[in-house]
Design a protein that fits this description.
With 67 residues, the chain is mostly helical. 54% of the residues lie in helices and 0% in strands. It is built from 3 helices and no strands.
Length: 67
């Protein structure tokens, strides 16, 4: 998903479900990107038993506490 396309969506044009679907799709792609490009992230998700190929809600993606 191209982030530029998200910025082209008129404000207030999406309902709650559409916004949630858009957010979930973007985070799914972002999670896959980091899994494929960061060995430490891959290890963490594997150790948690997270299925990288399953499209999950953003609430199911493991939280990474960072400072």
């Amino acid at each position: 998903m191209d982030i530029k396309k998200i910025f082209e969506i008129p404000p207030y044009s999406l309902d709650k479900r559409q916004k949630s679907d858009l957010f979930n799709d973007y985070l799914f792609e972002l999670t896959q990107h980091h899994y494929q490009n960061c060995y430490q992230y891959e290890i963490m998700l594997n150790s948690l038993g997270y299925d990288i190929n399953k499209k999950s809600s953003y609430t199911e993606i493991p939280f990474l506490p960072v400072r």
